[in-house]
TrEMBL record:
Pfam families: HTH_20
Alphabetical list of SMART domains matching this protein: HTH_ARSR
Cited PANTHER family: TRANSCRIPTIONAL REGULATOR, ARSR FAMILY, TRANSCRIPTIONAL REGULATORY PROTEIN
Keyword Transcription among record annotations: yes
Gene Ontology MF terms: DNA binding
Domain HTH arsR-type: from-to ranges: 1-91
Keywords tagged on the record: DNA-binding, Transcription, Transcription regulation
Family matches, as SUPFAM superfamilies: Winged helix' DNA-binding domain
Protein name: DNA-binding transcriptional ArsR family regulator
Amino acid sequence: MTLGVVLAALADPHRRRVVTELAAASADVERTCSSFTLQVTKSTATHHFRVLSESGLIQLTDYGNRKGVLLRREEIDRRFPGLLSLLVAERGQQVSGP
């Protein structure tokens, strides 16, 4: 997990939204890819989840007919302290801003 790869993955608003939603959750819960409303085609969503997985931000688990998505919170916090808090704070400003 390197800074450049992580920042490149988070540069896309769809991918940043996935990570932020996972980070904002009160507990680390595995979600399915389809639980995120990304407003993109299925193939584009697959690409976004692959980029997040390859960057080290999420762990994907293949269950055959669905994929589980889990934030790699410990690793992210250890490597980039404060990054997840920053993303959640940014989300809060966007939601409550003008």
